[in-house]
Amino acid sequence: MALASLCKIIWAVGVIAWYFIRRPAERRAKRHRIVSNQRDATDKFGLVAASVGLGLIPGLFALTGFPHDATYSARPFSLVLGTILYCAALWVFRRTHKELGKNWSISLEIRAEHELIASGPYALVRHPMYTSFLLMAAGQAFLLSNWIVGLAGFLGFAALFFLRVDKEEQMMLEFFGSRYREYMRRTKRIIPYVY
Length: 195
Description:
This protein is mainly alpha-helical. Helix content is 67%, strand content 4%. It has a single domain, classed as Four Helix Bundle (Hemerythrin (Met), subunit A) (Up-down Bundle), CATH 1.20.120. The protein has six helices and two strands; from the N terminus they run H-E-H-H-E-H-H-H. Helix 2 runs antiparallel to helix 5 (147-176), helix 3 runs antiparallel to helix 4 and helix 4 runs antiparallel to helix 5 (147-176). The termini are far apart. This is Isoprenylcysteine carboxylmethyltransferase family protein.
């Protein structure tokens, strides 16, 4: 089996795993009442951009090889590093869903009896779900040997992150007040000890 094909298979398995991690959280979330919803057009755009950059464009490349002109040869180190990054992304992604429990939402929402979670990956960063998306984008860039596909993952992540993170933190400040402000003082946004 060609190295490039193996890389594409690993990426596809990662996407399937991502879905199976996310699906139970979506079902569970529907059982809990929403008390505040900050979803707007920019939030929806960020979600679409992330879906396109981390799903649609790489999926198209994995299935068809398009865009052909931006493709380069896969390397063994890319397979190894991409697999490690994608596995790390899935581990963080699963841990965030587990820690959030009934508080999870795909959008900017506060649920009934919402709690401030500061354990697990949330002990290190305020937005580990975005950390997982950043790791997925990096894993995608190494696994799928195409410049456009690699860039698409990072652009999809960036659109979601930068369009939402300030609004998300403002919403948490309004709901949790000084508790969230203190939590912000002791944690970074998405990269432990850095940013």
